[in-house]
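Narrative progress, year one. The postdoctoral researcher (J.K.) led the effort to move from monomer predictions toward full complexes, under supervision of the PI. The following entry was the first complex the group processed end to end, covering 1113 residues in total.
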Amino acid sequence: MKMRANTAIGGLLIGVLFATAATAAFWTPFDPLKVNLRARLQPPSALYWLGTDEFGRDMLSRIMAGAATSVLVSVLTVTFAVMIGAVIGVLTGYLRGWTDRVIMAANDALLAFPGILLALAVMIVTGANKFGIVLALGIAYIPSVVRVVRGTVLSIREKEYIEASRVIGNSELYSMARHVLPNSLAPVAVLATSMFGWVLLAESALSFLGLGVPPPAPTWGNLLAASRPYMESAAWLSIAPGLCIALTLLGINLLGDSLRDRLDPRMVQG
Amino acid sequence: MRSNRGIAAFTTLAMSAGLALSLTCVAAVPALAAGGVLRARFNADIRSTDPGTNRDANTDGVMGHVVEGLVAFREDTSIGPMLAESWDTSEDGKTYTFHLRAGVKFHNGSIMTADDVVWSFKRWLDPATQWRCLSEFSDSGITKIIGVEATDPRTVVIRLERATALFLGTLARPDCGQTAILHRDSVGPDGKWNVPIATGPFKLGEWKRGQYVDLIRFDDYASRTEPRDGYTGAKKVEVDKVRINIIPDSSAAKAGLLSGSLDIINSLSIPELEELKTHADVKLSVTPALGLTGILLQSNDPLLKDVRIRRALALSLDTKEIADVVMQGTASANNSALPIGSPFHGAVEDQGYTQDIAQAKKLLIEAGYKGQPIKMIANKRYSFVFDSAVLVQAMAQAVGLKIDIEVLDWATQLDRYSKGDYQAMAFVYSARLDPSLSFEMLTGPKATQPRKVWDNPEAQEMLRQSMLTIDTAKRQALFDDMHRRFIADVPMIVLFNGSELAALRNNVKGYAGWLYPEPRFWGVSLQ
Amino acid sequence: MLMLGYLVRRLAMTIPTLLLVAIAVFALVRLIPGDPVQVMLGDSADPAQVDALRRQMGLDQSIPVQFGYWLAKVAVGDFGHSITNGLAVLPLILERFQVSAIIVLVAVTIAACVAVPAGLIAAWRQNKAADLAITAGATLLLSIPSFWLGLLLLLLFGLKLKWLPVIGYVPFSENFGQAITFIILPIATLAMIEIGALTRMSRASSIEVLRLEYVTHARAKGAPEWRVLARHVLPNAFAPTWTLIGLVLGHLLGGIAVIETVFTLPGLGRLLVDSIFARDYPVVQGCLLFTAVIYVVVNLVVDLCYPLFDPRVAAE
């Protein structure tokens, strides 16, 4: 019963997020890039609901535009990492042997590579833009997906129903498609929701270190990073994007949990 | 120990003139210091303790307390005597005779003589030392030093191949290690750098890499008697020790100042200054600086090679407003290559660009501009550079110029700068202390020096002239002429010179910033 | 015997991994535009000076030649010297690593001690008030950017309450008590963030295990609930969480740069980021290779321990 509330709240939060992002593509109260030097660092008011930043740009408009960018970056990154990672993970976990060893060596090499350098290098090669960061963070997260999927596959493939499937003469490929993939979905769903959060957070951390999606185009990460010098005097600048990140993550996680429960084949069968 | 050194000093001095004796008496009496430890902050570690070789701005800033040269920069960027009492210049400008001050002691207690000066110059000019400024004294540089001789224990004669206006200024340059006079024990028997044994008001204390550098008061320091003046004048140390904490994060530094774990932080950014204004236990020091912030325009670019487009951009800007907003009233607008604080910055240099939207639009139509985007590189390492870029973008939009800002990290931007690989770039030049050098950093043939932004052969010839002549009036006329051409060519739009901002706790007395962007901890006391 | 063979094979496998890392690191670092000499000399660099310094540092050689030199030296434990300050790279890394390692280890230990039981309780009380509270708490912690949390803690405890020093670092060898005051906040920040991630993982895997037949069996046999949880669920639920801890440890060494920047700690993460910005190739290469070795070792240990926690995956 409670799961329904999870789904409802999560769905609502994410619905609002996507609606905001979609709206921002067509309309924002002000131009998010429009500088207005006569209205610098205004606290929230009837005109500027979330106040203005150090260039007099409307924060609400920037948050809305930021939602669009942040959502796009996160969705693309997670999709990219999960799709590639899950396939590799299932293959290595199921086939084992030399394939597994070679892929896991490469995987470990990639995992052992701090994401920061990867992000910097990739972004410089592709140019500092949002697709650079998708590629950079996507590559950085693939190994985690591979590892988790492979771990699950390793523990599942010993289970009776897989044995049974094999015994009754189903091919390896069929067993894999029929049983392993759906069974790995639950942990991957959990990982993917966490990853959505990680990407949002990683983007803000990279912005903080000066490596994120470059301003002046707003993302929640660089809005938060840019608000830092004004934490004491203009707290609204940091509260709004911080809260947006937190609420989005809350929504994503709630939704992810209920999704997980639905995807779990044993739940469905039971 | 101290009494032994005192006796040694006395016997040496007894052989010198009476004047010298009286000077030593001044030096031997330690300043009536309140003492204590002054806790300062730098944003990055120093590179080494070896001045003028393995260095950066922070290294220069720390070493400026430890080492001294024959001459030093005064507050107004003119050159004053430091370890030299005075100097004579021959008529042809090729021979300099330096008369050394008497009774100046090295940190190890021995007295500085003309021999130490000769040894130091020999070391600087030895290619193995890798002196940053050696190239200035080579065939491609300003002149060559063909002889350094000690004619008596207090007189040194330096002979140059050709006369130059830049000789003393180059010697005094902080990034050249102020061509410090060092004791020969500063290097090991193998000639490798060991530790600076110099004549400055501070000795180098412990250096804990990545954490702090200590400066210890040098009790036997022989101070000059004039008031504090740039890197010369009196240097009275009023604290026992200065601990320079290495704190890269400026928010953390600010927090440290407010919580009382730091006494002074300098090189503040504007937002930090704004925030600190509201705290009662902190006071602020604002000083105009010599750096140059502006927009470089690549005249090799297919679009920007048209001077009308460059000029349209210049006319679209309200530089005064940009300076006001970006620097929050701490700096004035300046369109000239010469910093406002320079003695050569006069009425001519005040003539820059005046915003003229109609004229800008007209120029764009004449040039056939059709909204092609201009990519402008900026960085977030210097917030004022990025902020300027945003404002320029906004103002250019009003005349129909479309600018896209591309933010790069500083190393990448520097790479693009030195290759000339950009359309437009918001950039900051570091302080140049001589007007010739201010133009030298801008003008040159792009074919051989792609980093130069202004390729104008006539300007290059004028620049050459300005380096050769010592006559101030002649130099001023050359700089005025260059300024007019610079404004007409619009190779770059200078916006402002910035300012050096420091915040101190209320109990810190006597601190003053100056044109050069490094702090000075002499004359500063804690109460 | 079987175990030993596995160990040897795993160890042998790390060598190509590390070699791959070495090549990738070297190539990637050189791909980044910019030049250490240029950064050192700044805007007033004169090309002749730049060339001279590059020659002197061997940066004018071709990249494969530089790589060969570097690898040959690394093989005998010589990581070279920093371009910016001339320090030997390996001692520098070890010194900085101590700082990071203490913070990461303590924070992850604390996080695991809190998160694993919390996740278990949440799973056990699935969809009840306790679960909702724990999940909400974990989600909230997970949602806060680390530097943001760090700064808030710094503002609160350092500036407003003045309980803890705001800046600096004292090694444990110098003054134990003082050292603790400097690393409490970074550890707290890191631990709070990690508790979020680990609790969710622990909860998810506990739910998984709670559904397994042997748990139902144990319950049916009349074992008390706490015994079922402690004996049957906890060890099994710990396995996936253990994998995540391995991942976390590795990633933290890169991610800790942010925390180290906020709290001005001279750790490995900050050394790496500073060196990247300064294009200090030997230090960047050294840091990355070192991190890679640590990471590979941690994961080896995790893998070797995996069978201990999950009897279902026996050593092959």
